[in-house]
Amino acid sequence: MTEFSEIIAESENTHTLTKAEIISILKDDSINEFLFKTADNVRQKYVGNEIHLRGLIEFSNICRCNCFYCGLRKDNLSVSRYRMSFEEVLRLANVAKNLDYKTVVLQSGEDAFFSADKMCEIIEAIKKLDLAVTLSLGEKTFEEYKLYKDAGADRYLLRIETTDKDLYESLHPNMSFENRVKCLENLKEVGFETGTGCLVGLPNQSIESLADDILFFKNIDADMVGLGPFIPCPQTPLQDSKIGNLYLALKVMAITRILLPDINIPATTAMETIQSNGRILALQSGANVVMPNVTGDECKQKYIIYPGKSGEHISADDYRKFLSEKFSSIGRTISVDFGFRMKK
Ligand code: SAM
Ligand code: SF4
Predict the structure, then answer these.
(1) CATH number of the domain where residue 152 is located
(2) Pocket lining: 199 vs ligand 2, CB cutoff 6 Å
(3) CB within 6 Å of ligand 1 — which residues?
(4) How does residue 4 score in pLDDT terms, banded at 50, 70 and 90?
(5) Per-residue pLDDT tens for 133-191?
(6) Distance from the CA of 108 to the center of ligand 1, in angstroms?
(7) Global pTM exceeds 0.85
(8) Which structural domain range is residue 121 located in?
(9) Which pick of 48, 164, 172, 343 has the fewest CB atoms within 10 Å?
(10) Coil, strand, or helix at residue 254?
(11) How do strand 224-225 and strand 193-196 relate by DSSP bridges?
């Protein structure tokens, strides 16, 4: 055992690591297998062998923001924009329900058309289907978050993207790091199960700042952490940047599992996109959630945040069967409950 594998072995029980230890682990690739195995043990002990499926509905690709990495950014004029009707969102929520998913995730660009009233109408209608509702709509006011919560929404995902303030502000024109953090605090105060996460492999991102990202997740006691490698997208300012490294993303995820043992962690689509077994590797390195896409084909093809999104060409029905077989091949089952965080 190297010095670092002893540190990792100890963290399996203490669930703590210093920033210096995290940096050393992230820099040393000789301990990757041991790190992944340790995170897998922690996952099994705290959240078990069940995988929670959350049906993803990408209901609008219209966005007022200009995030440098994202294909949906406002200035990308090559995107064919859409927003779904209330009826279409409800139809897709029913598709998710019929596939036995217990949660729908409503995700969109920051689209002002969907006022708080319109969102609450959608949330209330979906809650009548006895589904948990997760929102991923970007930065809103405290009052808007409260209205969504009062309408019955259960969870909210808002990645911090990076805790390096200078890097954050260089990639997000007209947005502030302080407001991002404030939004996350507001989401917690309103009572949401709050999810955050980061991109791994952004240009000019340091290993030190990834260690800060992990400690940030721990510090705010995130209920969910979703992270993935950065994938350069054509027609964006970062189109010629280097693609993120899957193994570095898996390491950030594995350390997050060790430090936050009872939270929900998705095996993200970006991981599967970058390598065809990325999702399975993630599920064996700390992840316990998968978010299959139930957005219909036509819209799915227009919701291009990065190229080559995995699962794009398969129907929602076939995809569920495919996932079920994959999961049983690694000894995992699909959960039949809502999959809220059980604090331990
Ligand atoms: N607009 C909402 C927001 O930004 O929170 C939700 C939709 S946004 C497309 C969801 C996530 O996609 C972002 O948090 C970001 O981390 C991720 N994303 C965007 N562009 C990406 C890229 N090029 N590679 C990997 N992930 C990306
Ligand atoms: Fe809009 Fe979200 Fe993409 Fe930023 S990451 S441009 S907020 S959809």
Answers:
(1) 3.20.20.70
(2) no
(3) 69-70, 72, 107, 109-110, 136, 138, 158-159, 161, 199, 228, 230-231, 233, 270, 305-306
(4) confident
(5) 999 999 999 999 999 999 999 999 999 999 999 999 999 999 999 999 999 999 999 99
(6) 10
(7) yes
(8) 38-334
(9) 343
(10) helix
(11) parallel
User: What token pair was written down for 84?
Assistant: 């779904």
Residue 150: inside a domain, yes or no? yes
CB neighbour list of residue 312: distance below 8 Å, 6 or more residues apart: 293, 300, 301
Is residue 29 included in any domain, yes or no?
no
Helix (H) or strand (E) holding 157: strand 155-157
Q: Classify residue 20: in a domain, yes or no.
A: no
| pLDDT tens track for 142-151 | 999 999 999 9
Is 2 inside any structural domain?
no
| pLDDT at residue 127 is higher than 70 | yes
Q: How long a stretch of residues is the chain?
A: 344
Query: What is the count of structural domains for the chain?
Result: 1
Instruction: Round to whole Å and give the CA distance between 181 and 183.
Output: 5
205-261 per-position pLDDT tens digit: 999 999 999 999 999 999 999 999 999 999 999 999 999 999 999 999 999 999 999
- Largest Cα–Cα separation, the chain: 58
Place of tokens 């992990």: 214
